[in-house]
């Protein structure tokens, strides 16, 4: 035999010593497990018929491994101990058939077992002959080759028996046999390769001889688990992440192996052309790998295939819930708002690259509240009708848009689905957010990079996550309402002090005016002072009245107001500040408070002017439809985001201006509502904003307010 390198000698000693220790510990653990069924608490546990044989085989394997560690793998004692080890494991294999009673019915088993045992005994006889007889070089070679053939025959026969054992077992028996079958199969498959290489090369490879100790340790661990009474419940269940990464490494390794094989095949052509072809192939293959392997689409496809074929369930619920909690719980440290995190948390579950969140306005219609990585989709002001929202609320179903496009209509949702969603190919699913049987919002998910159909597991998980997200949104809405009430209380308290001070000042100035009128000697001075003080008192009283009306439902004053005249007053006020013009002026009078309407329009025009660049005009468009009068305030300014429109535009004390007080738009809406009208807004960032004021026409309001007696009086 060739001399061993010093490093492999040390490795062989350490690994075989480790194998001996592992076998001894496994045998002791199984002996301890054998005693347990005799106790009352373990009376229902049945001892496996191969347990005693396995303990004996582990003890003999520990002895063999210890001898190899001490004397080396080629010592006579090691060879003799290996024969005893093999006989013990052949007997264990025979006893494994007794787990389902096949050792009594399968008559071909016993002759095969006897033959394998006989061959192993011949191995012992061959060893004794080698020890007693002086051999020449040719005799030694012949003896070595016969010994290798004996080892190969035993390994092949044992693997055949093992295949029949596991292949013919029932499903229940396989659960019991699987770990022991894996252990014995690994041991004999390694021996088959080890001795085959030794036979073909004329000497046993010292590297594989050293690694037999490591194989022995692994076999001992697997056999111990397989012989345990609870082995049927043991499962190898790698996580989805481990399976995905393992499959990725296998694909990468396979790709590199194929690339190297093709490159080596090209090199066989010979010459400079072959070398050039080889380098060119490696270059293009490497570039393709760099573009293909990091691809997000490729990774998602691979993840879908892994989950589809390797796991019973699509989702790793523990990992999904941990990721969901991290996304939602980012809090103030995150640059994204809660609505954006809500969309992201839902989209991450289905690997959707983008999504939208629709929330109800005060009229019940659903508007865009947030978009996550979906800037190119055009969402109308009324994104979803109230009727579809009621359908979601009543039936609590998740809408697969592909099914609707194919003609499905289970709940009557097909005719209610907006055209912009039906026509958006990227739109994939609508997930309702239900909180206490009330719809709080709807999430629209885009199609994943690896296309697939939604199934029952998707529906169950998305429904549960939707309920959780709905609770978060409802909690945030309640918190905002409490904060708004607290701010109102503080604001009203401050205004009360301001009103008190202004009232005192107005009284003092009025008294001063009366005293000056009574005591001033100079008539001209007296008249001038009287006019000045009277005007100041009027202004302060007007401010006091205005502050007193703030926060209430406004004045009860109603009269016929010409929208064109009000618009002309607003245009005149801004004539020297910013270009404001009327582009259309339909005739018609509305029922309104002229002062409040002018004030509301001034607020809206002022906001439009501040949002527009210098020189960009603000337009007023006046129209009627027979029932309502309408005036639009249109600008081409910076526009507003859907998040600000929903969460900040009509919220008092929330302003996008550094020095703004945040009550202009809110006060305009409240005054228009108090007059029986509506204020609506449409806006797009960088494109501009349109505020629409709608008020009932005076003639229509007067007509609707008349009773039957009024009509009888007119006829008479």
From TrEMBL:
<feature type="transmembrane region" description="Helical">
    <location>
        <begin position="52"/>
        <end position="71"/>
    </location>
</feature>
<keyword id="KW-0067">ATP-binding</keyword>
<dbReference type="GO" id="GO:0004673">
    <property type="term" value="F:protein histidine kinase activity"/>
</dbReference>
<feature type="transmembrane region" description="Helical">
    <location>
        <begin position="148"/>
        <end position="167"/>
    </location>
</feature>
<dbReference type="InterPro" id="IPR036890">
    <property type="entry name" value="HATPase_C_sf"/>
</dbReference>
<keyword id="KW-0547">Nucleotide-binding</keyword>
<keyword id="KW-1133">Transmembrane helix</keyword>
<dbReference type="Pfam" id="PF02518">
    <property type="entry name" value="HATPase_c"/>
</dbReference>
<feature type="transmembrane region" description="Helical">
    <location>
        <begin position="6"/>
        <end position="31"/>
    </location>
</feature>
<keyword id="KW-0472">Membrane</keyword>
<dbReference type="InterPro" id="IPR003594">
    <property type="entry name" value="HATPase_dom"/>
</dbReference>
<dbReference type="InterPro" id="IPR014265">
    <property type="entry name" value="XrtA/PrsK"/>
</dbReference>
<feature type="domain" description="Histidine kinase">
    <location>
        <begin position="497"/>
        <end position="699"/>
    </location>
</feature>
<protein>
    <recommendedName>
        <fullName>histidine kinase</fullName>
        <ecNumber>2.7.13.3</ecNumber>
    </recommendedName>
</protein>
<keyword id="KW-0812">Transmembrane</keyword>
<feature type="transmembrane region" description="Helical">
    <location>
        <begin position="209"/>
        <end position="230"/>
    </location>
</feature>
<feature type="transmembrane region" description="Helical">
    <location>
        <begin position="273"/>
        <end position="293"/>
    </location>
</feature>
<feature type="transmembrane region" description="Helical">
    <location>
        <begin position="109"/>
        <end position="128"/>
    </location>
</feature>
<dbReference type="GO" id="GO:0005524">
    <property type="term" value="F:ATP binding"/>
</dbReference>
<feature type="transmembrane region" description="Helical">
    <location>
        <begin position="179"/>
        <end position="197"/>
    </location>
</feature>
<dbReference type="InterPro" id="IPR005467">
    <property type="entry name" value="His_kinase_dom"/>
</dbReference>
<feature type="transmembrane region" description="Helical">
    <location>
        <begin position="77"/>
        <end position="97"/>
    </location>
</feature>
<dbReference type="Pfam" id="PF01590">
    <property type="entry name" value="GAF"/>
</dbReference>
<keyword id="KW-0808">Transferase</keyword>
<dbReference type="InterPro" id="IPR050980">
    <property type="entry name" value="2C_sensor_his_kinase"/>
</dbReference>
<dbReference type="InterPro" id="IPR004358">
    <property type="entry name" value="Sig_transdc_His_kin-like_C"/>
</dbReference>
<feature type="transmembrane region" description="Helical">
    <location>
        <begin position="242"/>
        <end position="267"/>
    </location>
</feature>
<dbReference type="InterPro" id="IPR003018">
    <property type="entry name" value="GAF"/>
</dbReference>
<dbReference type="InterPro" id="IPR029016">
    <property type="entry name" value="GAF-like_dom_sf"/>
</dbReference>
<keyword id="KW-0418">Kinase</keyword>
